[in-house]
Amino acid sequence: MNIMTIHPSPSSGRTGLQYQSEKTQRLLPIGAPLVDQRLQGGIAQDGLHEFFAADHSDATAAAAFAMLMALRLPETATHILWVSGDKERQASGRLYAAGLAQMGADPARLLMVQAPDVRDALRAAADGIRSKAAGAVILEAQGHARLIDLTSTRRLVLAAREAGVLALLVRGDAVPMPSAAITRWQVRSAPSLPLPGNVPGFATFDINLLRHRGGIAPFAARVTWDHGDKIFHDAPLSGGLSASSAGGTTDPELRRQSA
């Protein structure tokens, strides 16, 4: 794992945004057939996606799920860039190389940037996306980071689209606010089923699609991570995959739109 402290250059002032149709976007399958079917193939590989924890105790699960989505990229996508400010890193803990290896990651492919604050973390993430040095850029910002708003996320969306880079925003236990992210997810850790011989089972997550700018309806699912094949599998969730009604969503932004 490589750790760097950098002083990024000022970010671009561009704010215009147009969304491509799903037909023209490269899609990254999650791997779980039922989930990919609902997503019509996967998530945009050259877009921004954000992940929130279901509650404070699930902040690590949200971060882990984002990292595992980055591992779904082909290894030819070179490095994964993880960006956080010092306060955010201390709040959610440090990345652990041995743990990452157990999840199927190669710690040598991970570049970690510790920015002094959220403003510089945003700039570092945008610069990392534009550089195309990493196949995926993950920005972690815990709590109520006011600088992560519609304007700043719009810049990240544009950068990801132009560079063809997967951009993932980990918000932990923050309250969802308006953003330009293509998808918004809520993540909760879930109990795993033991393997034969009472061996600990695969990491398991309850995921809830809160919003999709392509018009896909919200839904909930349970998935397990196969670290050997670096793929998610479907797992039963109260009888299988379920759909959430817009009126019952936990996303404040959607509730405002439906009010």
Write the layout of secondary structure elements.
Elements: E1 2-4, E2 27-28, H1 33-38, E3 43-44, E4 48-53, H2 59-71, E5 79-85, H3 86-92, H4 97-102, E6 110-115, H5 118-131, E7 134-140, H6 150-163, E8 166-172, E9 183-190, E10 203-212, E11 219-226, E12 231-235, E13 242-243, H7 252-258
Parallel strand pairs: 1-6, 4-8, 4-9, 5-6, 5-7, 7-8
Antiparallel strand pairs: 2-3, 9-10, 10-11, 11-12, 11-13
Protein name: Protein ImuA
InterPro entries: ImuA, P-loop_NTPase
Organism: Sphingorhabdus contaminans
Order of helices and strands: EEHEEHEHHEHEHEEEEEEH
Number of strands: 13
CATH topology: Rossmann fold
- Domains (count): 1
Which sheet architecture does the biggest sheet show?
Answer: 11 strands, mixed
Q: What top-tier CATH class fits best?
A: Alpha Beta
Please compute the radius of gyration using only Cα atoms. Answer: 17 Å
Q: Give average pLDDT, whole number.
A: 81
N-to-C CA distance: 47 Å
Strand share of the residues?
Answer: 25-35%
SS-based class: alpha/beta
CATH architecture: 3-Layer(aba) Sandwich
InterPro entries: ImuA, P-loop_NTPase
Protein name: Protein ImuA
